[in-house]
UniProtKB/TrEMBL annotation:
The lineage of its organism: Bacteria, Pseudomonadati, Bacteroidota, Cytophagia, Cytophagales. Gene3D superfamilies: Fumarate reductase/succinate dehydrogenase, transmembrane subunit. CDD domains: SQR_TypeB_2_TM (cd03498). This is Succinate dehydrogenase cytochrome b subunit. GO terms for cellular component: membrane. NCBIfam families: sdhC_b558_fam. InterPro entries: Cytochrome_b-558, SQR/QFR_C/D. The chain crosses the membrane at residues 16-40, 60-81, 110-130, 162-182, 202-224. It comes from the Bacteria. Keywords: Membrane, Transmembrane, Transmembrane helix.
Amino acid sequence: MSWVTKTFNSSLGRKLIMALTGLFLIIFLIGHVTGNLLLFKDDGGQAFNEYADFMTTNQFVQILSITTYLSVILHVIYSIILTSMNKKARPIGYNQVNPPKESSWNSRNMGILGTFILIFLVVHLQGFWYQMHWGDMPKVTYDSGTYKDLFEIVVFAFQQEWLVALYVISMILLGFHLYHGFESAFQTLGLNHKKYTPAIQFVGRAFAIVVPALFASMPLYIYFTLN
């Protein structure tokens, strides 16, 4: 067994993979929420549809997309492995008998939060990503060309109260997940220091509030203004 295999099969190696994939997905969230802000543009969806077309046809973006999919898969797999290892290490449910006083609720329930987010992700991908790639999409024509009208699909989807509620609740849970995961990733990478750890904590907590809030605002905006 090579040192690489030994490293990534160790507890520390698994945590390292979780940290690196988590940070990559955080970067992905920044790009994703930035592009989706075009939903707020009052142009009938043109800018959003042109953006969606670029994201599904540009070769460089496709490479990044594959990296994102792999990061999600690895993040899920290794979270399951680490959760299973933790349970085996404490077969009598130590955390329930004697819960750690200094740990937060979200840090103790990262597995539950992650599971719900994964379910949400499946719904999200089926409703938009799958439709954009292989669904029977309506078309719309602008001066710049003819595009798949993903904007119409998004607006139609967010006329449904249950879906809006699912998105808002999921973004709240994502915020809790990020609140702990952001700082935890830097700790795993050994980036702890009394000088810059407070800054990492501040940025992480701000990120965990602002980004999910922006995502949640989109279905709410569409439901209440375009309904």
